[in-house]
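[Solved] Which block belongs to which protein?

Original post:
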Amino acid sequence: MELAKIGGTEIFLDAAEKYAQINDIDARDFEAVWEGLRAQRAGYEAVFCFRDSPEPLEALTDIGAAVLEDCVKMRLLPKDFRNRDGGRAELLSKTDFANFSAVYDAQAQAEEMFWTGARILERWDIWRIFVLREGKKIIGFLTLMIDMRDASIGEIFCIFADNRVDMESLFSASATCAFDSGKREVIFMAELDDAHRMEAASAVGFEAVGHYRAYRALVPG
């Protein structure tokens, strides 16, 4: 992905797939960004992500945008962290990425995630991936992005495990990694109807602090 700007707003672009993602946008900038996309990126799929600001719902309705994700924003601070790992979760090495990707991509496709295994590998430097194994088989995983626009934050993008104990282990290992590397908080966007992940995150010390909603629209051309 490449980084571009419309006005002062950052746009993440994948020209090959005609995809644009705009994070942390607010109502004040929306109109200018949309007009810029129409002028420069006709035919692109545009995803607008609103984390802590009011969503311009009327404007999004006007362009035919549909809700892509509707989530609770959860935050973990060092003072609230309750480590429940027990040493089970391990940091994935790049040499073992193919084994991880085979498991991860099936989940990424099912959940329509942008970050496929191939895209993660292209930006390996910004990720830390934790896995749980049963013998040689990967039975759980978590992806943590450590290079955010705000360098004090790490964000958990995806967690998968069959049970709450395993989820708690993965949450804990990733939080330990983030805090040891100097992050002051870890965030996780949990789907509103995903009680299992929210309960596991809460057991580790995450608290619900806001809302996150993403919309998808096709830029006309």
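(Second protein starts here: sequence line, then its structure tokens.)
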Amino acid sequence: MRKDWKRRALLAVLAACGSILSVSAGIGQYRKQGKAEIVFIPKVYDEDNDFWMDTIHGARSAAKEFQAELTVFAPEVESDYLTQIAYIEKAIAQKPDVIAISPILYSDMTEEIEKITEAGIGLVLIDSRIDKDIEACYIGTDNINAGIALGQEMAQFVEDDTKIAVVAHVKGASTAIEREEGMRQGLGGSQRRIEEIMYCNSDYGKAYELTKEMFGRRADINMVAGLNLYSIIGAARAVDELGLGGKVKVIGFDNDKKGIQYMEEGIIDALVVQKPFNMGYLGIEAAVRVAHGEPVEKVIDSGMEVITADNIYTGENEKLLFSF
């Protein structure tokens, strides 16, 4: 009797162990089968651009956490939309679950991006939009509100003789369009003081040259706004080298080590700083949800802060600015 009881107990234990192993194997298989395959196509891979490197870092961190297979394709120049289109075609051919893309152009790439959804692949937009509402989710800065914040900062410095030059990045990019619109709203009646709008095609050197050339023929310009990292750093460099620091107000978007140095030196007066790590992380998290057929918010605001010399080293701002 005792032997039969021991035998039955042993069989029960073995059966339980077998069930546990079976469940564990099943979970492992589910994870393997359910591993989302995602391609991320940012605007640029540029190690000198902290914004995009932080965005890519955030994307990779999310992929690791959510056990997704992430491939990153990116042009070497932010204005190179033809290479970005080629990467879209390459990504579609790989048939991933989701393609996350930061489109360089608002309108002129829509037809190519539509091919993603036509191929039955999920679409997530990060940082920038297109002119058709076909994405499962958009993650990025609310560029209208960020532009308004920029304009309001500029308005604080407006005087009777203020004349403004704007250095934008890529003409036709949704971020350039929306930030300018918001900036004008923030400036209110002072938007009439905008005398020049230049496009640097997201090139530090071109932003510098355009700004320097502009001051050569427009010595009366006394405020400069830069609408992305390339724009503001190039413009600030020109202001610095021309000895106009403190005489010309400089306000812009984004930050890097040089931008913080310019703010400490009084060359840059204020920056609207986005949260690129958040943007990349939340973008890939949303892509994983789309891949698994889970609900996802249509629009996710990744946030922004206005940074001045007065708050540069306070609390969360220091963590945001010195992520590099």
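Accepted answer:
You had them paired correctly. Confirming on the second one: The mean pLDDT is 89.
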